[in-house]
Amino acid sequence: MTDIQTPRRHDATLQDVDRRAFVKLAVAGGAASLVTACGWDGGRLLRPGLLDISRVNDWVGEKILFSPTRLAPTYSTAQRSAKLPSYFISTMTPMLDDPAAWRLRVDGLVAQPLELSLDDLMRLPRVSYTVKHHCVEGWSAIASWHGVPVAAIVERCRPLKAARHISFASFDAGYSNGWDLASALHPQTILAYGMNDNPLPAAHGAPLRLYSPTKLGYKLTKYLVSMTFTDTRPGGYWEDQGYPWFGGI
Amino acid sequence: MRRHHWIVRLTHWATVIVLAGLIASGLQIYEAYARFGNRGGPYFVSPFDGTQFPHWSRLGGWLAGALNWHFALAWPLVAFGLLYVGYLVRSGEWRALLFRPRDVRGALEMTKYYLHLRREHPPQGKHNPLQKLAYTGVIVLGALAVFTGFAVYKPTQLAWLTALFGGFQAARYWHFWIVWMFVAFTIMHVILVFVVDPASLRAMLTGWYRGRFPSHD
Ligand code: HEM
């Protein structure tokens, strides 16, 4: 075979051309796929990969960036926003038929399951703060919240060793959220029965909602009925549709 | 002659693609709340208040899809950025790229040349002083994009960073404006490549330069 005699220089040029063509193709291909990709959530091909990366980001948010003791900045009551939008899933503001019969159920992997009335909750330690609310959409608003730290409930229900998560459930069309235990135990994570010095309004989750300035709004379950301690990671209304599970800020 | 190391070429073109995806998903995210300022105002002045950008310019389909793209693509932006800056530092190439006070005079001469107030192209090294200004600026812009991004991503955990940019809504505002600075840079950058030295495009692809400014190496 005479090919053995192929001059090196020639060889290099061929490679050069090939590589150049390849790079051009890759750039053009990348650009073209981006153009057709617009409005595209990744489809069957890429969406699972994007969700996997979102789980990695959850891990970074939970294990690296989250501090169990660092407090969110607080504001004066004079800085409260004039309005705070409220979202719910039901077509009309979810309301109880019989508010007096309402109880918060605390169950799952706990040594002491609880059924707490609003009066019971108000007798527990009370936390008040004025903080900035951050919505995943990009808006923010300042409001005051009053309630009992989730940590105070945890102290009383005594979760088993296996409990790693809490599922917060509501009476708003099955809306729920799954939380990691560390975020739930943060000193500013509360079950709020009051807002801006008043009882919690129906639009904002009466009689009781989860609140924490360490999470985006969609993690803050309104219209609470139960908190269930689990060993596996509970899903949630928006989380199951692709929103980041951790939702920490 | 050999001009661009493979790391420069790889990170350059990868950044173009990744940044396009970040901008497109960012415009989809923007749609969810197309203004800046706490609810109830006052709002920051912006010509894009309430703007919905054209369908072709948005990536992700809806907010959650766009967030997942955005947070996934942020990783390669940081990785390629660090690789590129790491290469500049290790190779010593940063000397040819970093705009320093002594480049001000040369930048004025180059401006004169572009405005036809001066006939000959001023002598230069690998990059002329205006290129240095633009390239140094765009690297700073990339770093700012990442930092404002973190400020918006974790306004509680990184409250000090968010405060540095003037608060959550201000950080959103700067994060958004950085996009238009990138776009402005890219338009000028591409125009100059084609008008001044199209051969540099081949050099950025293959690494080899065969154009009319060999002295620039
Ligand atoms: C995302 C937008 C872009 C950014 C941030 C960017 C950034 C840069 C930087 C920092 C350099 C200097 C590289 C070095 O020597 O170390 C450079 C050079 C270059 N870029 Fe871009 N670029 C972008 C888009 C483009 C596009 C779309 C083109 C296509 C025409 C292009 C063509 C070039 C060329 C030909 C050079 C080499 C110029 C020279 O030899 O001095 N760039 N770019």
What does the model show?
- The complex is a heterodimer of chains A (249) and B (217).
- Chain A is of the alpha+beta class and 249 residues long.
- Chain A has a single domain, classed as Sulfite Oxidase, Chain A, domain 2.
- In chain A, 29% of the residues lie in helices and 22% in strands.
- Chain A is built from five helices and ten strands.
- In chain A, the strands form two sheets. In chain A, strands 2-1-10-5-6 form a five-stranded mixed β-sheet. In chain A, strands 3, 4, 7, 8 and 9 form a five-stranded antiparallel β-sheet that branches.
- In chain A, strand 7 and strand 8 form a beta hairpin.
- The longest helix of chain A has 30 residues.
- Chain A is globular.
- Chain B has eight helices and no strands.
- Chain B has one domain: Up-down Bundle (Fumarate Reductase Cytochrome B subunit).
- In chain B, helix 5 runs antiparallel to helix 7.
- At the A-B interface, helix 1, helix 2 and strand 4 of A face helix 1, helix 2, helix 7 and helix 8 of B.
- Protoporphyrin IX containing FE (HEM) binds next to helix 1, helix 5, helix 7 and helix 8 of chain B.
